[in-house]
Structure formats: C-alpha cells, structure tokens
Amino acid sequence: MATVIDGKAFAQQLRNDLKDEVTALKAEHGLTPGLAVVLVGEDPASQVYVRNKARQTVEVGMQSFEHRLDADTDQQTLLDLIEQLNDDDAVHGILVQLPLPGHIDESRVINAVSHDKDVDGFHLINVGRLNTDGGGVVPCTPLGSLMMLKSQLGDLSGLHAVVLGRSNIVGKPMAALLLQANCTVTVAHSRTRDLESLCRSADILVAAVGRPRMVPGDWIKPGATVIDVGINRIEEDGKTRLVGDVDHASAEPVAGAITPVPGGVGPMTIACLLHNTVQQARRIAGISED
Ligand code: NDP
C-alpha cells in the first residue's frame, strides 16, 4: 500500500519555517515582507482562495494587502493599480488572481507586474529563467510538488518522470523543474498516443489534466511516486466531492507513494506562494539566504 504524502503537514512545516524566517528578517533587518493580492470580480472559488491566502500571509507575520475590483473594471484601471503596487516599497509580492474577466488581456496583466515582485513565476522573465539558469521565481504548484518529491525520494537523478498536462501554470514548469533535478522527463497531453504504457513506465507520475480519476491503478508502475495535482469537483452519492486526476482507490495499492486530494498539492501551493514572497523580499532588499 502506498505511503500517503501528507501535503497539509508538509505545508504547515513550511509555514512554521517561514514564520521563523520572517521573525528574523524583522528583527535583524527591519524587513516585513508584504504580499498584495488583486481580485477582479466575484468568482466564488477565487474569493475563497484570496481569503485563505490573506489569512495565511498574516499568520506567518507578513503584511497582506487586498485589492478587490468590480468584474467590469477596465484593463487600464487594473494596470494602473499594478503600477502603483510595483512602486510601493511595502509590497514585495503581487499576485493577480486568475482567471480574469474575458475583457482583460491576462498576458498583458501578468507581464505588467514587475518580475521582481512576481510571486507566481508567470512573468516571461521568470519563465525564461526557469528554463535557462533556474534562478527566477518558480510557479507555486510545481514548486510544492517538487518539494514533496524530494522529501519522499531524495535524489531524483535518472528517474523517469512523466508529466500529464502541458499548461503554462503546472505541466510545463513542472517538467522544467524535474529536468533541472536530472530526471528524464516526458510531457504528455491530449494528443499523446498510448498514454497508458507511457504512464506505466514512470518512476514519477505527475497528473495535471483536470479530469476526475482519469488515471487508474493499472496505469501506474508498482512502487512509483504519484503526485496528483488535479482538483475536480464532482457530484457523487448526492454529495459534492473533491477528487484528483488519479483514481486513488485503485492507485494506492500499486503506487509507492501518492498525494491525496484534498490535502496533497493544494495546501502546498499557498505555502509556496508565501515562500516566494519571502524570497522576493530578500532579493529586493539584497539580503541573501544564510
Ligand atoms: P489545463 O486545463 O490548463 O491543462 C490541462 C492539460 O491536460 C492540457 O495540457 C491538456 O492537453 C491535458 N489533457 C486534458 N485532457 C487530457 C487527456 N484526456 N489525456 C491527456 N492529457 C489531457 O489545466 P491546469 O494545468 O491549469 O490544471 C490541471 C489540474 O490541476 C486541474 O484539475 C486544476 O484544477 C488543478 N490545479 C491544481 C492546483 C493546486 O494547487 N493543487 C493549482 C493549479 C491547477 P492539451 O494541452 O493537449 O489540451
């Protein structure tokens, strides 16, 4: 039976460490990292995410700035706000909650955030750095997934990693990180042929497709480590449930280790956002890590 990787406990540990780091930054350098979150519109899921982010930001001792704009806010107003946050010395991280309403050009907005204050790792400069020198800010979900993989497996060198999904926010940066960690990486997507045998050849399987329980246990190599990024809301037995992209009931007896949904990658994503904000605050202030 697989070890279930406890993302909640992992995220709690990361937040505890960040709290100590923030305390030290305040005491030794008079620096309080600050995260600004911008939400446009009233999407209920986004509102929950923003509330959780703000609460956890304050819990680790950082400053939280929330900006809520109406759904019909025009693009220039949003760009003006980002400009103002780029110039604000109390703000070290800027996160614009996605998705944005259809009349706003997401790419334009993402790249208007100063790359020094980008905490999502979506700015083109940070994307470029991830794929070249690895020195920029790394997107939160892949970063959290990599942390759990390293803690579970130690050195990842030479392992075959299969990443299901090629989105800019999960699949592609995950593949870049695994490559940097010396895995042999295969990225699969909706046009990939014979997904089943490909998955069965994976020592590490990262599922980020957004399809409930798409990966059954018999697609998994015995003993493989499975990171289930999927968050899918389904109706089952008269209840709303959150399920991953992996069918856990059949996967757990086969895999060596697996992240649950919920309680796996999800909690790590916010913890990594806080981690990225502290890193950016250090960079802006020119304070290196000890
Ligand atoms: P996208 O919809 O942007 O990308 C999905 C990817 O999966 C695409 O590359 C698509 O291929 C591929 N895909 C879709 N169907 C299949 C299929 N049948 N076979 C093979 N590949 C397929 O999703 P995201 O990357 O944004 O998110 C993926 C999942 O992760 C979602 O469930 C999302 O909710 C979750 N998520 C969780 C986070 C967390 O914090 N835990 C954070 C972000 C996302 P193609 O490119 O060919 O269309």
Would you write up a description of this structure?
The chain is of the alpha/beta class and 290 residues long. Helices cover 41% and strands 17% of the residues. The chain folds into two domains: 29-115, Rossmann fold (3-Layer(aba) Sandwich); 140-266, 3-Layer(aba) Sandwich (Rossmann fold). It has helices spanning 7-29, 44-59, 75-86, 106-112, 124-130, 140-153, 171-180, 195-200, 248-251, 265-285; strands spanning 3-4, 34-40, 63-69, 93-96, 160-164, 184-188, 204-207, 225-228, 232-236, 239-243, 257-258. Strands 1-11-8-7-5-6 form a six-stranded parallel beta sheet. Strands 3-2-4 form a three-stranded parallel beta sheet, with helices on both faces. Strands 9-10 form a two-stranded antiparallel ribbon. Helix 2 links the parallel strand 2 (34-40) and strand 3 (63-69). Bound molecules: NADPH dihydro-nicotinamide-adenine-dinucleotide phosphate (NDP). NADPH dihydro-nicotinamide-adenine-dinucleotide phosphate is lined by residues 141, 164-167, 169-171, 188-192, 195, 208-211, 229-232, 265-266, 269.
